[in-house]
């Protein structure tokens, strides 16, 4: 369903950032393969993704403080991108987002009132401001055939639509169409692109973001060509280039005035290339350079001001994966769960949470590989222990983990077939251990947790435990019906006794969404009494997780 009339307000701006992160994940491999300028290190897509992810995190933090004012959200996106910028393309992206921040702040100041939304004219101003900032960050040296060429084309198209009084919808369509034309002309403008048979990687990433903005506002997702490197044409030898620098150095420098920034730029240009110095509020700058002398690049920054967020990454031509320092923490646990109560329970134990069934269907659909990769990226961790908990098909789990591993994330899937097994694994997680030891310990705890579920029969059927009729309680373990009882409580007792046949110290019961408060309380009382009478010495804990499908999930450890 189209959302043509949606305004580009603070909420939509944050939604755009969310969609852009998701779409950059989808296109990351394509963008990385196109990356030959300024260094063929195949990381443009990864750098744009992590920069945009940092921007989104800051916007989410702003929203959590109760603010979806468009000026504040734009400022948050800008600040997050600047502080989390990765690589040359990340610095450029941070300046494009700063264009939105500057333009919205200026419009609000000029009107003297709160700004409700960005229209076509203000979008044009934001994009043009982005062009200005990007060129400035590169020391005024604009190279035709790069992301700046694509950004200029998009800004000009939006400007023309605004001058003609056209809607934001039409302006976004025009921006994308103009960006495609400019992108496909980039090999004509930059010899290194023509030699490699590619379009500009940064320009392709920008097109992804423009299309994300269009889909956020209009509900339309345009179909674009997949840009792949073609066979390079035979041309005369290009100008001889020296060897590529060994290191990429990035940092933030505070307490640095314009004169010191100019001196820093001059020194970095002596030390290497791909120099970008992007201004931030309060006399601070984001700095980027490719150099053979990383120590000297850092020393140059120290002479200009106070440094923070120093990242030094090795550059290697044709490398894949993510740049060093892309992660905000060492290890995380990602748990796939269903239900509000389950999300609260797992998050309370320190796990990142991914929930299936965003469409609200009665049966919780499984998680796709793309959703899994997105959640791994959102964790911000270099190592991620994944608890699928029965909601991720094997082929999707393998595909998602393989993709994430290819980007430099150490992903360890832990074989949990139910949320009760996931809780057992999470209880023994220790980030201080090596990842392989942690994964083994978690897998062993999950495997030791015997588990089953209780459902309500919906039709007459023949099971391993006999015939059932609608309304009967079914105790299930190992995908087989082992108990048929008159109701959920009776089935739970029968299943619990089977699971406790070889003993157990801790019984965990997760209560689903189909049981109301009165029914849930009644089952808890029945199970407490049964445990007291028949399994003394064992502890029973229950949680109202609100998951769909099964009435109860039961685990025994």
Q: What is the general shape? A: elongated
The CA-CA distance between the termini, in Å, is 48 Å
Query: How much of the polypeptide forms β-strand, as a percent range?
Result: 15-25%
Order of neighbouring strands in the sheet with most strands: 13-12-9-16-14-15
Helix content: 40-55%
Q: What is the number of helical segments per DSSP (H or I, 4+ residues)?
A: 18
Rounded radius of gyration (Å): 28 Å
Q: Which consecutive residue ranges, at least 5 long each, have pLDDT under 50? A: 232-241, 317-326, 359-363
Q: What is the average per-residue confidence, as pLDDT, rounded to a whole number?
A: 87
Biggest sheet architecture: 6 strands, mixed
Structural class: alpha/beta
Q: What is the tally of beta strands?
A: 16
Properties at a glance:
6-stranded mixed β-sheet, 18 helices, 16 strands
Present the secondary structure layout.
Layout: H1 10-34, H2 44-64, H3 70-83, H4 87-111, H5 120-137, H6 147-163, H7 168-189, H8 191-196, H9 201-218, E1 247-254, H10 258-271, E2 272-280, E3 284-291, H11 294-304, E4 306-314, E5 329-336, H12 340-348, E6 352-354, H13 369-379, E7 381-387, H14 394-406, E8 410-413, H15 419-427, H16 435-448, E9 450-456, E10 461-463, E11 466-468, E12 473-477, E13 480-485, H17 488-499, E14 506-511, H18 517-534, E15 539-544, E16 552-556
Parallel strand pairs: 5-6, 5-7, 7-8, 14-15
Antiparallel strand pairs: 1-3, 1-4, 2-3, 9-12, 9-16, 10-11, 12-13, 14-16
Helix pairs in contact: 1-2, 1-3, 1-9, 2-3, 2-4, 3-4, 4-5, 5-6, 6-7, 6-9, 7-9, 10-11, 13-14, 15-16, 17-18
């Amino acid at each position: 369903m189209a959302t043509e009339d949606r305004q580009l307000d603070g909420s939509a701006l944050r939604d755009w950032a969310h969609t852009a992160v998701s779409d950059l994940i989808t296109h990351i491999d394509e963008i990385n393969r196109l990356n030959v300028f300024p260094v063929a290190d195949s990381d443009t897509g990864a750098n744009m993704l992590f920069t945009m992810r940092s921007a989104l995190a800051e916007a989410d933090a702003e929203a959590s403080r109760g603010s979806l004012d468009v000026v504040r959200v734009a400022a948050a996106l800008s600040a997050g991108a600047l502080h989390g910028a990765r690589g040359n393309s990340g610095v450029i992206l941070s300046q494009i987002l700063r264009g939105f921040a500057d333009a919205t702040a200026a419009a609000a100041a000029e009107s003297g009132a709160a700004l409700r939304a960005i229209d076509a004219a203000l979008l044009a101003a934001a994009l043009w401001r982005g062009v200005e900032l990007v060129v400035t960050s590169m020391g005024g040296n604009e190279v035709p055939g790069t992301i700046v060429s694509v950004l200029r084309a998009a800004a000009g198209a939006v400007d023309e639509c605004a001058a003609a009084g056209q809607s934001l919808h039409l302006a976004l369509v025009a921006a994308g169409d103009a960006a495609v034309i400019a992108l496909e002309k980039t090999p004509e403008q930059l010899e290194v692109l023509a030699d490699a048979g590619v379009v500009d990687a940064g320009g392709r990433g920008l097109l992804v973001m423009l299309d994300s903005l269009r889909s956020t506002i209009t509900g339309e997702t345009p179909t674009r060509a997949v840009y792949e490197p073609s066979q390079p044409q035979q041309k005369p030898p290009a100008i001889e280039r020296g060897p590529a620098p060994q290191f990429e150095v990035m940092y933030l420098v505070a307490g640095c005035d314009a004169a010191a920034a100019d001196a820093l730029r001059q020194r970095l240009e002596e030390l290497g290339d791909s120099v970008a110095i992007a201004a931030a509020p309060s006399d601070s700058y984001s700095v980027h350079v490719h150099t053979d002398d990383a120590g000297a690049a850092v020393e140059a920054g120290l002479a200009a001001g106070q440094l923070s967020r120093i990242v030094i990454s090795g550059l290697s031509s044709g490398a894949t994966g993510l740049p060093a320092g892309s992660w905000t923490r060492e290890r995380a646990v990602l748990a796939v769960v269903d239900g509000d109560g389950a999300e609260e329970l797992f998050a309370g134990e320190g796990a990142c949470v991914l929930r299936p069934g965003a469409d609200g269907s009665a049966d919780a659909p499984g998680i796709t590989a793309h959703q899994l990769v997105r959640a791994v990226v959102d964790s911000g961790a270099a190592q991620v222990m994944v608890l699928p908990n029965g909601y991720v098909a094997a082929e999707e789990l393998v595909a998602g983990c393989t993709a994430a591993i290819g980007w430099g994330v150490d992903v360890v899937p832990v074989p949990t077939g139910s949320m009760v097994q996931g809780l057992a694994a999470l209880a023994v997680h220790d980030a201080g251990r090596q990842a392989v030891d942690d994964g083994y310990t978690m897998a062993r705890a999950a495997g030791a947790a015997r588990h089953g579920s209780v459902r309500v029969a919906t039709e007459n059927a023949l099971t391993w435990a006999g015939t059932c009729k609608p309304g009967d309680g079914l105790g299930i373990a190992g995908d087989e019906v082992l108990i048929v009882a008159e109701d959920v409580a009776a089935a739970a007792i029968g299943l619990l006794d089977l699971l406790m046949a070889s003993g157990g110290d801790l019984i965990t019961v997760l209560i689903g969404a189909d049981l109301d408060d009165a029914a849930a309380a009644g089952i808890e009382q029945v199970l407490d009494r049964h445990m007291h009478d028949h399994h003394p010495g064992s502890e029973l804990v229950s949680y109202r997780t609100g998951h769909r499908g099964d009435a109860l999930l039961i685990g025994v450890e």
